[in-house]
Amino acid sequence: MRKVIIDCDPGHDDALAILLAAKHLDVLGITTVAGNQHIDKVTANALKIVEFAELTHIPVAKGCGLPLVKPPMFAPEIHGETGMDGPELPTPTTPLDPRHSVDFLIDTVMAHDEVTLIPTGPLTNVASALRREPRIAERIPLISLMGGGLTSGNSTATAEFNIYVDPEAAHVVFSSGIPIKMCGLNLTRQANATEVEIARCRALGNRTGQIVADLLVFFAGTVKEVFGVSGGSLHDPCAVAALIDPTLIEFEPMHVAVELKGEHTYGMTVCDHRHLRGIGDEIKSIGKRKGEAPNAEVGLRIDAERFFDLLIGTIGMYP
Ligand code: RIB
Ligand code: CA
User: How many whole angstroms from its chain centre is CA 191?
Assistant: First the structure.
């Protein structure tokens, strides 16, 4: 199985990404980064996840609590005060890996031939590791990340949360030369969990299915309150699904720059899709690329039905 590290900020959808990855990929570790909530809270949530899912063989390391340049920002309006509100989960007792996430990332990548990274939060840890030990870049075959978007944002009109929390870190990652699969909002909003998917999780009859259903009820509730739309888009599991079944998501190579100066576009993933006529499902033709050579593959379409079958089927594999 593909060796991976999940760098995350649990986070309702981060939790589902971990559950999906652990049954299909060789998860060498979970590294936490501040994002949806304070680093202490997202780290506690990562431990809660490995405990309820009986995944405590996977080491969890605590990472950066502050972005490289910007002041910290969290998302309690979406993920709640704990960062993973909804189900009542016991205070975790599993010990953390003693290393900081950045050191864990470097040590693990240097100790294995090829380790794929799956960042599902801000890119502070990954950027810091690349700066601290540049040699890891040639040992990481792929970064499959949730972040950015082809056309619009959620934190601002143009910037998606994971990128907007730490745009400078995202710039380091997108200019690293490491192959990137970018699962942005234009893609992940197609994987929208509604009451149908919540009912399917409940019907599994296992403890994990109930916990996931409770997570999704809370997540869909805050998304409705904040954005006025139904359902909770399962952003982070898309970055995992891309590695498990490459037929699920259609990617298109293009150049992606992270805007660091714009008054209205700071944190935007500026995707050069001038060669596309139409976007997403409406793509009519793909012409000659313009501008800089592609540095990423950007997700355009996902087979949501098969994605949910994979995800819910995997949740059914847990206790
Ligand atoms: O914009 C969505 C992303 O921000 C997801 O990763 C979610 O968990 C939050 O981190
Ligand atoms: Ca996340």
Answer: 13
200 CA from centroid of ligand 1 (Å)? 23
Pocket probe mutation, ligand 1, options 45, 85, 118, 120, max atoms within 8 Å of Cβ:
120
pLDDT interval class at 292 (50, 70, 90): very high
CA–CA distance, 143 with 301 (Å, rounded to integer):
19
Look at the block and give the residue holding tokens 């501040």.
34
pLDDT-wise least confident of 34-48, 92-106, 269-283, 287-301 = 269-283
Structural domains in the chain, CATH included, are 3-315 (3.90.245.10)
pTM score of the predicted model:
0.98
156 phi and psi angles, rounded to 5 deg: -135, 180
Q: Round to whole Å and give the CA distance between 17 and 145.
A: 11
Distance set, CA 40 to CA 50, 66, 307 (Å): 16, 12, 31
Q: Is the CB of 45 under 6 A from ligand 1?
A: no
Which two tokens mark 111? 């100790």
pLDDT at 35: 98
Catalytic residues: 9
Q: What residues does the ion ligand 2 have nearby, CB within 5 Å?
A: 9, 11, 14, 120-121, 236
Mean pLDDT of the chain: 97
Does 283 have pLDDT greater than 90? Answer: no
Q: Cα separation of 208 and 78, whole Å?
A: 21
Structure tokens at 23: 């049954």
How many angstroms is it from 66 CA to the middle of ligand 1?
16
Element (H, E) at 105: helix 101-111
Ligand 1 atom at minimal distance to the Cα of residue 10: 8
- Judged against a pLDDT cut of 70, whether residue 281 lies above it is answered with no
Query: What is the 145 CA–ligand 2 centroid distance (Å)?
Result: 10
- Sole residue written with tokens 């309690």: 76
